[in-house]
Amino acid sequence: MTTQNVPVIFASVQHFLQACEKEISNIPQERNELLKTLALHIQQQLAKESTISLTFICTHNSRRSHFAQIWAQVAAAYYGLQNIVCYSGGTEVTAFNLNAVKALQTAGLIITGASAESNTHYSVQYSAVHPAIEAFSKKYADAPNPSSDYTAVLTCSEADEACPVVFGANARFKITFEDPKKSDGTPEQDAVYLNRCKQIATEMLYVFQLVSIN
Known about the structure:
Blueprint: H1 11-21, H2 29-48, E1 52-58, H3 64-78, E2 84-90, H4 98-106, E3 110-113, E4 122-125, E5 133-135, E6 150-154, H5 157-162, E7 169-174, H6 189-213
């Protein structure tokens, strides 16, 4: 699927997304249904709200929640959807993992960041016209994230168990992903991170593809 907004997304990112689109048909049925439920909620929110906020939550806000936030924001732009703002956060504060940053750069995103502190603030760019995404580790309700009237998407089982209630959220969805952290320091590390990055990009594309056609 193409939209009038696609040309303003960096060509390297378009190439990655087009490869991901080809994988949508391979999403397992059980996950397909979970993603459809999230897409329906987004559609319903867009029908009654001028802007909607999605916050992706995992324990450390270091890997999966950043992947999900970034690819959800990119997917919304890719399908020409407006007034959707994506965030990420954790139940603890750590740092945006360097292996996750590397995987996103491999996928074509331009990521820059410098900080004297361990929790570096990164600027993630995917487009010449859309604003960069500010990426760093934070608790899910900390600024600049919204503290009320947002949709919470739990991306790891630990965060799901730690947050049976997500305070301030108007809805809560459990769409978890396997943690690529298990591969840290192994020869498979880069491939595992890139595969998880691609899986999350593919599933976020599917969600916003559904939103865009209904």
